[in-house]
Automatic annotation (TrEMBL):
This is DYW domain-containing protein. NCBIfam families: PPR (TIGR00756). It holds the Pfam family DYW_deaminase. PPR repeats lie at residues 99-133, 224-258, 292-322, 323-357. It comes from Spirodela intermedia. Residues 538-630 form the DYW domain. Keywords: Repeat. GO terms for biological process: RNA modification. SUPFAM superfamilies: TPR-like (SSF48452). One of its GO terms (molecular function) is zinc ion binding.
Amino acid sequence: MKPPVGFSSRRRLFPRLLLRRLTSSPPPPSAATAEFAELCRRHELPAAMAAMESLHRRGLRGDPVAYSELIKCCLKNNAAEDGRRVHRHLAGGGGSLLSMFLCNVLLNMYAKLGLAEEARKLFDQMPERNVVSWTTMISTCGEEEALNLLVQMIRDGVRPNMYTYSSVLRSCSDLQTLRGIHCPVVKAGLESDVFVRSSLIDSYAKCGDLPSGRSVFDEMSTQDLVVWNSLIGAFAQAGGTSESVAVFVEMRRAGFRSSEAALTSLLRACAGTAMLEMGRQVHAQAVKSDADLILHNALLDMYCKCGELAEAAAAFWRMCRRDVISWSTMIAGLAQNGRSMAALELFEAMKKAGPPPNHITLVGVLFACSHAGLVEEGQKLFWSMEQLFGIKPEREHHGCMVDLLGRAGKLEEALRFIMKMDCEPDTIIWKSLLGACRVHRDVGMATQVAKQILLLDPDDEGAYILLSNVYAGCNQWGDAEEVRRAMRDRRVKKEPGCSWIEVGKEAHLFVAGDKSHPQAEAIGKELDRLICRIADAGYLPDTIFVLHDLEREQKEEVLRYHSEKLAIVFGLMNSIEGKPIRVMKNLRICGDCHNFAKIVSKAENRRIIIRDPVRFHHFVDGECSCGDYW
DNA sequence: TTAGGGTTAG
């Protein structure tokens, strides 16, 4: 007899199962295995685990599909210990239950849970391996190991398929290797697979070869939304905002919908290059996706990275759901924009009403302390974070502490702190101390610290530059020149300083002293006029920031054409009165440009926002949000 | 049973 409409077998089984669980007499073997299978199928983890134990106690065994569902359920619930228990049960009794199929499922669980060692151990123990086993193993590995496994699998007579190549390609971090793998992919006729294609695009972008990524895309005959998004994401990651927008427009024209992933990538690109107007336009496209958390986190980040804190805060409080990334983004955004106290207040609110902080949240909070000179608060947090939040200080947190002490002029204390650290100091931590030596003009310690960095990395450009800055700042021109010579001898090049500004949704780039911009002549003239105007307001070029031993007049000339000055003048010339001037820099702002921007903000009655790689400077009415503490 | 696109710091 057929059940009545709407009365599915699933609905019928449930009360029977419940009844059985409530009664003490065990079900007959066939019913017990069926019950186990059903619990596994329904992913009821604790009940299925109990059913498995009970079955095995009675010497009974379940169906392979049931075990496979149970292992998948362990993975879904992140229940590694339960997964291991299933593994032990399957391996017990001579291991007869551990078929290649179930080994592969277990392998996948270990791999996805990040338990690489356990995955490897199981893989090594497998008497037989098929393409799924090899591919699963490859997907857990970095480039070198993935390539080794690929060679071994071919030697073992197992032919890689599109899944295998997709994983191998994704592991490539070196362009030559990537090209080497691309060849057999083409030979095997697998390039047209959309998964392989998106892996190729992502990996070419990651290896810095965007044109190759683009040509893989252009050769695509069947179109696929994810592949479009891969290309948008690839340009976004490389900082190519206008290119990623162009691909987005192209994609829409080709009839594809604008997905959340694509909009998120665009926002990331806008954030990376501080393209606020473009970001606002993407925001307008994103309004329909109210519930998408990742997209809204990216939106928040975009406003923070464009220095628009009021809009960031509005976006933050408007979100219908906020996760640890939303809170961390907002806290770091406030801190980087010189609003340390507000960052700390938000952290207090998070502790009361938000999700538990993670290690990145605490980096943001420590950053807030170090950039506001809140030494005691920072130290208190650092020493209590493990106890309060269960987060063991990592290298990044130690780096923040060195920064905190160094910025506050406690150089000896910072050095002692480094010496006592549990982890080995890396060049980033030493450079933080070297930066503090420069600010506080401690030539002796700077020399020692720079030596330490160059021992770790003899080609570290930053160490040479910072040390030569320290010498130049103390008028030790001979020493500064010697550092420069050492740099030349080792062929270490200084990255040229550049700034850019968005005008009419386009980025205009300026390199120090560069006259290639179409308006270069007019900008130069306007800069001269501006410098004359602000000279009356007290601007005097501070030549200490010129690193070469030049005559004063020459130094002034070098300073005059620092890229941020050119960008500010261009912004003044090309934007509506009253609109803030927003400049982005690849290097940290020099003291003279900082002073220049302060005076211009007052003299021209303009808000100027400069973002360097570490933080923001908001110049309003002759003052900077950093309080001259950077 | 194996592979794809999106968010935070340094």
